[in-house]
Amino acid sequence: MKERSNKYLPLLLGFACALGVLLGAALDFSNYTSSSLLSTNKKKEKLARLIDYIEYEYVDEVDMDSIVDVTVNDILSDLDPHSVYIPPAEYASLSESMKGDFVGIGVSFYNVNDTIAVIQTLEGGPSEKVGIQGGDRILYANGEPLFNKNISNDSITEHLKGEENSKVVLKVFRKGIPELLEFSVRRGKVPLKSVDAAYMLTPTLGFIKINRFAESTYKEFKESLLKLKAEGAKQIALDLRNNPGGYLAEATQIVDEFLPEDKLVLITKNKKGAEEKTYATKEGNFEKGRLYVLINENSASASEIVAGALQDNDKGLIIGRRSYGKGFVQREMALGDGSAVRLTIARYYTPTGRSIQKPYDHGNKEYFNDYLNRYRNGELISADSIAVADSLRYVTPGGKVVYGGGGIIPDVFVPKDTNFEKESLNLMLRSGFMDRFIFEVLESNRAYYNSLSEEEFMKQEMVDEEILGKFRAFTRRENFEVKVSAYKPVLKRYLKATMAQQLYGSTAFERIVNEGDRMITKVIELSEK
After folding, report:
1. pLDDT in tens, 13-46
2. Which of 118, 446, 501, 525 could form a disulfide linkage to 509, CB 3.0–4.6 angstroms apart?
3. Which domains, ranges and CATH numbers included, belong to the chain?
4. In this structure, is the dihedral angle defined by the CA atoms of residues 79, 83, 84 and 86, taken in order, positive or negative?
5. What is the tens place of the pLDDT at every residue in 286-320?
């Protein structure tokens, strides 16, 4: 796991929290003054009095944190599926992820036999710079032992994290070296990459995969785009599969790289009907190149803004399956105790004027069960099963027919592989189930694996029958039986990809996983026509 810190702050103040949520929609709008925000309202007073009454008079002791949390969640659940309360325990980690970096020493680790075992150093982090390697055991931090103790991962993280530029002296055991190694590590900002991979699929086709839209995403994306152009990319495959979204501004900046100046990118409307339009600005870095955008049923929000803006401007091809269907703009409001509310403040529309928000009038449960409905009606394996409404029909400037009403429908449909065994392997890969097993494999001969260059690694098979047998034994130990007779090549590829992730990082991982991927194969086929 990566370094993390959780901050538990004092008891929630019921009145302040509940009142803050009720006022959330008004925050950040210029026509509201401080006095109008805090003006009395009998309904707000009623809620505050109820919470105070419970706290002071109820016959039993009550966890007021829970009371307020339930109150806030109930208020928000009646609004829409995406207005949510974020408790303090989650908010710090979420904010860190969306900020795009954190302060620490930059390692992923396991707690193995009461010892901190480094899985890998994080690219661009302090530990990588001083020479710490995967497989190293961190035994001491500033002289304090971190082994043979009943110590939680959170406590370990607290020892490793600290103020930016502060130093921590680590004593490390490395196999094959009798003496402990000493590293003085200056804590610094460690990037949390949102661009998982950027590499060439063919001599002229570049590939960029984005996992979320954080504060650093546009910068990472632009660096990747320019790198691929320098390597000869005349076409780009932009992979937004399973990307849940994030910051709207990062999405529109990325669209701007592909569209000429003054092309409409996005329309937003708030509760008063006020429209705000976003246009492409300066000359982009890839306005003339061919573009392919990969989406699936888990591509949401900012991912759909990118796909919709490009589709409506007749730029490139959208490939895959219908996207999630989230057309809301949200704003985050901190509640002052380490928690926050994410509130829907507007709807967004693609350049042709279509909303891609799927219906939510049958309740949140039905809304979040939409994937099952798509599976049952056959939409995941046949484009003909995608329901469209003529009333939501739009036409792009180039004459392409597009539809609103729930997600972006791709120009080129690629069915999902619904074979249960293969899906199980994919789930194990993406959930991290294979990570611990591969760590054990690497530990069995760490010196050899660390000696391989990435190029040498890619050329070798790496996963033989012995390793497959050990993996089957591992799954049985974990009470998970997997039958792989028909998909042995896929399992070998996924295990090798996990190995590459721990040795070389996410780009190496994606390169291996994408071999034989249906959508990637389709993109390559289209790019060669």
Report:
1. 333 333 343 333 333 333 444 344 445 567 778 8
2. 501
3. 14-78 (no CATH), 102-191 (2.30.42.10), 195-413 (3.90.226.10), 420-527 (no CATH)
4. negative
5. 999 999 999 999 999 999 999 999 999 999 999 99
The tokens for 281 are 């600005």
Instruction: Please give the torsion angle defined by the CA atoms of residues 519, 520, 525 and 529, in that order, rounded to the nearest 10 degrees.
Output: 100
Q: Do residues 228 and 285 touch, judged by C-beta distance below 8 A? A: no
Selection from 151, 112, 156, 109 nearest residue 133 by Cα: 109
Six-digit token string for 36: 């109008």
Three-state secondary structure call for residue 268: strand
Q: The whole model's pTM is what?
A: 0.86
Q: Which range, of 36-50, 103-117, 200-214, averages the lowest pLDDT?
A: 36-50
| Sequence-separated (6 or more) residues with CB below 8 Å from residue 34 | none
Q: What residues contact residue 406 under an 8 Å CB cut-off, 6+ apart? A: 322, 325, 356, 357, 358, 359
Q: What is the pLDDT of residue 206?
A: 98
CA separation (Å) from 399 to 104, 207, 252, 304, 305?
52, 28, 23, 20, 20
Dist. CA 92–CA 133, nearest whole Å: 28
In whole angstroms, what is the distance from residue 405 CA to residue 386 CA? 11
Cα–Cα distance measured from residue 25 to residue 331, given in angstroms and rounded to the nearest whole number: 9
Mapping DSSP to helix (H, G, I), strand (E, B) and coil, where does residue 159 land?
Answer: helix
| DSSP per-residue string spanning 162-229 | -STT-EEEEEEE-TT-SSPEEEEEE-EEEE--SEEEEEESSSSEEEEEE--B-TTHHHHHHHHHHHHH
Burial category of 26 from C-beta neighbours within 10 Å (exposed 0-12, middle 13-18, buried 19 and up)? middle
pLDDT at 152: 67
